[in-house]
Amino acid sequence: MAVGIMGGTFNPIHFGHLRAAEEVAESLQLAQVIFMPAAKPPHKSEVGLVSFDHRWHMLELATAGNPLFVLSDLEYQLPGISYSVETLSQLAKERGGSEELYFVLGLDAFLELPTWKSYRELFSLCHFVVVARPGFSPESLDAMLKTQVSASYSFDFQVQGYLHPSLHTVYYREVTLLDISSSTIRKLLAEGGSVRYLLPKKVEEYIQQQGLYQQL
Ligand code: ATP
Ligand code: MG
Questions:
Q1: What residue owns the CA closest to ligand 1's atom 21?
Q2: What average pLDDT does this structure show over 140-147?
Q3: pLDDT band for position 98 (cuts 50, 70, 90)
Q4: Tell me: the pLDDT tens digits for 158-174?
Q5: Looking at residue 177, what is its pLDDT?
Q6: Which of the following CATH numbers is that of domain 2-179: 3.10.420.10, 3.40.50.620, 3.30.457.10, 3.40.1580.10?
């Protein structure tokens, strides 16, 4: 079984995340996409980060009705800061050898990988699916992979991804580019602007009801 993992702070979840997950699932025939919100992300400041419970609830509202999309609170269960290398190892252990894991990341996030703890180990644990994001070129992916991970990665047109003799595959997918980010949404909300059509209506309503993101 092929399983996608979509990590992030989801502060809040929006249509950019959901559409990317949908297109990747279809393209790679994934049986499931697991949305895994970070509990204590190492790279993001706590300022403006709403509680795990709020982010979880918004994820539930956004993914309800799509049987392919499931949630995992693994990063909440694990003690301390959420490092992907630890989460992924744990997930690989729990799920046994029967599942192939595909870690889905935006190109912006993938380029930051060299700042992550033990990031090279990730390439022995799971495949990557890097999705396009406005303003980031696929050439930067090529350069990062070959200089920061391994020079033995080479692009294969048939799989639309980078193959390696011993490490896992790094797929690249030109998903529909939606120039939506959680930070833009938070900024709009703090300014009292409209966020309609950037995220699911139920999530927007929850934000209003709970009075989230009223200031940056
Ligand atoms: P922020 O603006 O706070 O950084 P974000 O919108 O980038 O938020 P994250 O929770 O940081 O959302 O992202 C989780 C994952 O989803 C990352 O891998 C990121 O690259 C990807 N992602 C976020 N927005 C989009 C989008 N519009 N299209 C494709 N991928 C996205
Ligand atoms: Mg981001």
A1: 106
A2: 97
A3: confident
A4: 999 999 999 999 999 99
A5: 94
A6: 3.40.50.620
**pLDDT computed for residue 163 by the predictor:** 98
pLDDT value at residue 96: 65
Q: Supply the pTM of this predicted model.
A: 0.95
pLDDT at 40 over 80: no
Q: Which amino acid is at 91?
A: L
Is the minimum distance from the CB of 173 to ligand 1 under 6 angstroms?
Answer: no
Q: Ligand 1 pocket test: which of 9, 17, 40, 195 has the largest number of ligand atoms within 8 Å of its C-beta?
A: 17
Ligand 1 atom with the smallest distance to the CA of 132 is 29
pLDDT of the residue at 113: 96
How remote is the CA of residue 72 from the centroid of ligand 2, in Å? 19
